[in-house]
Specification:
Blueprint lengths: L6 H16 L2 H4 L5 E3 L2 E2 H18 L6 H10 L21 H16 L4 H9 L13 H20 L2
Antiparallel strand pairs: 1-2
Helix pairs in contact: 1-3, 1-4, 3-4, 3-7, 4-6, 4-7, 5-6, 6-7
The structure holds fe (ii) ion (2 copies).
């Protein structure tokens, strides 16, 4: 798996499945929010989408690539900087890890027509932190794994 910090490259990998998401103003607003270290939420979700595609390809999982990419791009669509405890949408600042999948799903439903699989990917990506939200679809497992790997990579190598 290519460990790239070239975000044009990562964006190009997602583009065939999600041009409408990639050009949406609220999606682009994630460039203004930090996720891990100096990495924006926008950069993070592009990486998660790319890692998810790579996990699917290398492990021959035959995931629905469109839902996989779109769910990955929207999995952290909470639309605030989670470090900013005063942000209007940051409803549970001390419990962001538990609540942000619900907020992301609510925001994503407002801006896009989501499939049931995309909803599952967004809602369950934080498992096992969100104990009862156990993924039941392979696409949701893949995005959850890609998210953890991307978070580890960004925390260690993108300072
Ligand atoms: Fe998340
Ligand atoms: Fe994430």
């Amino acid at each position: 798996m290519k460990l790239s910090q070239n975000y044009d490259y990562l964006q190009a990998k997602a583009e065939p499945y999600a041009e409408d998401i990639l050009t949406h103003d609220n999606f682009l607003s994630m460039q203004n929010y930090y996720q891990h270290g100096s990495v924006s939420t926008w950069q993070h979700v592009l990486r998660v989408a790319y890692f998810a595609l790579e996990i699917n390809r290398k492990m021959h999982l035959h995931c629905n690539r469109r839902d996989l990419v779109r769910g990955a791009l929207l999995h952290d669509y909470f639309l605030y900087d989670w470090h900013d405890h005063a942000a209007e949408l940051n409803e549970h600042p001390k419990l962001h890890g538990f609540y942000h999948p619900t907020i992301a799903l609510k925001n994503a439903k407002k801006d896009f027509d989501l499939t049931a699989l995309e909803c599952e990917i967004i809602y369950k990506h934080m498992w096992p932190l969100t104990l009862t939200h156990v993924p039941t679809k392979r696409e949701a497992w893949v995005v959850s794994m890609a998210d953890k790997w991307a978070s580890f990579y960004e925390t260690i190598f993108c300072r």
